[in-house]
Design a protein that fits this description.
Blueprint (H helix, E strand, L loop, with lengths): L2 H9 L9 H10 L1 E5 L4 E3 L7 E7 L2 E5 L2 E6 L4 E2 L1 H6 L6 E4 L3 E7 H4 L6 H19 L2
Antiparallel strand pairs: 1-8, 2-7, 3-6, 3-8, 4-5, 4-7
Length: 136
């Protein structure tokens, strides 16, 4: 997938929305295209995840505690908080069609945190997420 298209998709993710263009490009440079066959479990609730996934083609179902939460399509994403804290997945994600994502693993992401302006942009994104969750 074209790098500029990835950058545009990343802009819609609250965690990355306050990053400068050159920082978004650094994230996009580290992302890899990954294909999952229909029916494949992409992430399992309670298990440690290895990265962030951004849907570019296909669909995936998100299930939490046995209940369907949503369906992800082009531009949908998951794993953004686990990318930072390495914590367990909060939901199970299963490909409901052949699915293509651009994905970023933690070990490719972590070196970006050495840049103070990058880290500040992420902190601003985390603040947006926290405010959304509090209903502000």
């Amino acid at each position: 997938m074209d790098q500029m298209k990835i950058v545009e998709l990343l802009r819609s993710v609250p965690l990355f929305s306050d990053l400068a263009d050159h920082d978004l490009t650094k994230v996009a440079d580290r992302m890899k295209e990954v294909h999952f066959a229909q029916g494949t479990s992409v992430a399992t609730q309670g298990q440690t995840g290895v990265g962030f996934h951004l849907v570019v083609d296909g669909t995936a179902e998100v299930v939490k505690d046995g209940a369907r939460v949503t369906e992800l399509r082009h531009g949908g994403y998951f794993g953004e908080i686990g990318l930072i804290d390495g914590g367990p997945r909060s939901a199970t994600v299963t490909a409901t069609s052949d699915l293509t994502t651009v994905s970023l693993v933690g070990w490719d992401f972590t070196p970006l945190l050495d840049n103070p302006s990058f880290t500040k942009g992420l902190l601003m994104g985390l603040c947006k997420i926290a405010r959304q969750e509090k209903g502000e």
